[in-house]
Design goal:
2 domains; about 240 residues; Nucleoside Triphosphate Pyrophosphohydrolase; Arc Repressor Mutant, subunit A; homodimer; alpha+beta; 7-stranded mixed beta sheet
C-alpha cells in the first residue's frame, strides 16, 4: 500500500535473442517457484526497490542471475500491465530485449533441454535456447512478449544497425548480410544491402585482413566502427 | 508489500499533443497535491488496481479526469522507472502519447494560462497548451518524457500515417502536407510527399468535393480511408 492505493506487482522480463543454427533463438529459463514451477519462461523477476537503481539495472541483475550473462546491450521493448497476466494479482512487466553473439554465451550456458526443476545459481543457470518461430505458447503472457520482441527486432533490422550486436569482432560483408538475412528470415539483394550498409556508415575494413575462403577469392574483413558500440544507426530507406 | 517485496509506486502519464498556431503543442495539467502543488505537469495519476483493467484503461481514465477528453488514439511511449523520479519513492511511470485535432478539444478545454491551484473536475479541468519547443523544464522527469514523445512522433511522422490523427474529417493534400510539416518543424518536397502518401494508400478523394481556395483553382478534398482509423500505416522510405 502506498498513499492508500494498493500497488501492482512490478517485474522485469528479458527477451534474450541470438543466432544459432541459422535462425533467431531465444533463451528460456526454468522456473523454480509457483506459479508455473518447472516450466520454461522468459528470464524475469521482481524489481527490488532497495537494490535496483532503475528498471534497466533490474533487467541486468535478473539476466545475470537467471542466465549468468553480463550486461549485453539491452533495450526497453514495451510494458505489459494488466489484471490478468499473473495469477498473483494486477502486475506490470517492464520488458527488455537484447541481441548477443552466440559465441559469447554458448560456453557459459549449458543446455539441458529436458530437465527437472532445480537450483538456479550464477554458475549453473538452467537455460535453453529455442527457435523463436517454433514456440507456440509460453506461461503468463510471455508468448505475446516474445512475439512483440521478434517483430520489433525484424522491423528495426530493415532500417538500422541493430544486428551488429550479433556479430563477432571480425567478419566479411557476406557474413554480415547472412546475419541480417537470418534475423529477417528472408534473403536480401546483395547490391542494395551493400549500398545501405555504406549509407549507415557502420563498418570499416581492417587493413590487410583477408579471409581465405576456400574456393572463392579472399574476402576483405571488416569490423564495426567504434562509435557504433551501443548506438543504433538508422537508415533512411529499408534494406529491401 | 507483495510476497515480502516492497513494491514501487505505479503511475501513468500522458503526453497529449495537438497542432495549434502552426506548431506542435502539449496539454499540461495543474497539480493539486504535493509534490509540486500548483505546478503544471503532464496529466498523470496512479494505477487503480481495483478499477483499471490494464495500463491503457488507466491512461484513458486519467486523461478523461484531468483533461475532460474522451479516449483519443493512445500509444504506449516508454516506461520511466527508477528511484529518483518521484520524491515519494521508487516509481514507475508507464507513459502514453496521443495526437488529437485541436478542433476536437479547444472548446472543451478552457485555458487559464496563469491561474492558482484549484479543483480539477471533469467539467472544469485546468489545462493549458504549450508549444513543445518552448518548454525548458517540467516537474518530475516530465521534461524527458515530453522530449521522448516529441522525438518519437517526429521520427514516426517521417515514415508513417501517424499525423492523420491530427486531421479534420475533410482536407486537401496541401493541408495534409502542411500538418506533416508542422509536426516535423521543417518543409517537405511536394512531389516526394505526394508519392509517399500514395504509397501509404492512406487517403481517398471525396467524389465531387472541391475546396474553393480563393485565388487558386479549386482543390480536391480528401478523407482518411476507413481502414486507417486506428492503425498505423508504415512507409518503406521516408518522406524527405
Amino acid at each position: 500500500m502506498q498513499n492508500g492505493h494498493p500497488q501492482p506487482i512490478v517485474t522485469v522480463d528479458v527477451v534474450l535473442l541470438t543466432l544459432k543454427d541459422g535462425a533467431l533463438q531465444v533463451a528460456l529459463s526454468q522456473r523454480e517457484h509457483p506459479p508455473h514451477p518447472g516450466e520454461w519462461t522468459l528470464p524475469g523477476g521482481w524489481v527490488h526497490v532497495d537494490e535496483d537503481e532503475d528498471a534497466l539495472a533490474a533487467a541486468v541483475r535478473i539476466l545475470k542471475s537467471k542466465t549468468g550473462l553480463q550486461s549485453p546491450y539491452l533495450e526497453q521493448l514495451q510494458t505489459f500491465a494488466n489484471r490478468h497476466r499473473d495469477s498473483r494479482g494486477w502486475s506490470v512487466s517492464i520488458a527488455y530485449y537484447a541481441l548477443v553473439p552466440y559465441e559469447q554465451v554458448h560456453e557459459r550456458l549449458s543446455v539441458p533441454t529436458r530437465s527437472k526443476p532445480g537450483k538456479n545459481d550464477a554458475t549453473h543457470p538452467r537455460i535453453q535456447w529455442r527457435g523463436v518461430d517454433s514456440i507456440r505458447s509460453l506461461p503468463f503472457d510471455h508468448q505475446k512478449i516474445l512475439e512483440t520482441a521478434v517483430s520489433r527486432v525484424r522491423s528495426k533490422t530493415l532500417y538500422s544497425s541493430l544486428p551488429i550486436h550479433l556479430m563477432p569482432k571480425i567478419f566479411t560483408l557476406s557474413q554480415l548480410q547472412n546475419v541480417y538475412e537470418q534475423v529477417l528470415g528472408s534473403s536480401l539483394d546483395k547490391r542494395t544491402f551493400r549500398r545501405r550498409i555504406e549509407e549507415l556508415d557502420l563498418v570499416e575494413p581492417i587493413p590487410g585482413a583477408l579471409e581465405q575462403g576456400g574456393a572463392h577469392r579472399p574476402a576483405q574483413c571488416y569490423r564495426v566502427k567504434r562509435r557504433h558500440g551501443r548506438e543504433l544507426a538508422l537508415a533512411e530507406k529499408n534494406l529491401r
